[in-house]
Amino acid sequence: MLDISIPDMTALINFLERRTMVLYAGSMAEALNSTGTDGDNEKALSLLEGAEGADDSAKAREVQRILTAVTCKDGDFANVLKDHHDRLWIKAGMIVEKYGPNIVEISKICREILGGLSEVEISKEQIEKIPSWAEIERGIEQAVLTER
Prior knowledge:
Order of helices and strands: HHHHHHH
Helix content: over 70%
Structural class: mainly alpha
Number of strands: 0
């Protein structure tokens, strides 16, 4: 379990937005080509809405409903919800596109660590040792903060 601190509403909103983007980015990363230089948006959406992405899709919908509940001031819940979805889908896509080669590199390293196993736990320390990880993490944080 990750330890997170949510001391105020801004921190909560930032967390919910980052969580949504991570859930979207999984399907988008699956839709990258082998070099990470080109992603297929239709394939990503199909993966997210299909059996492969059912859990992530359900979690993203739940997180977005919470995000909308805490940010919707005018009572137009459906439109605010759609705006959050569209905006965060685009932001996640921009991050996946920008860091596509890094994502593919991390995927290859993780597959080497897994060694063909279907289930394995990778520690936070192992992930943090992957050079591309810190670059992606900084990029995500910057993407969330620059919008505000």
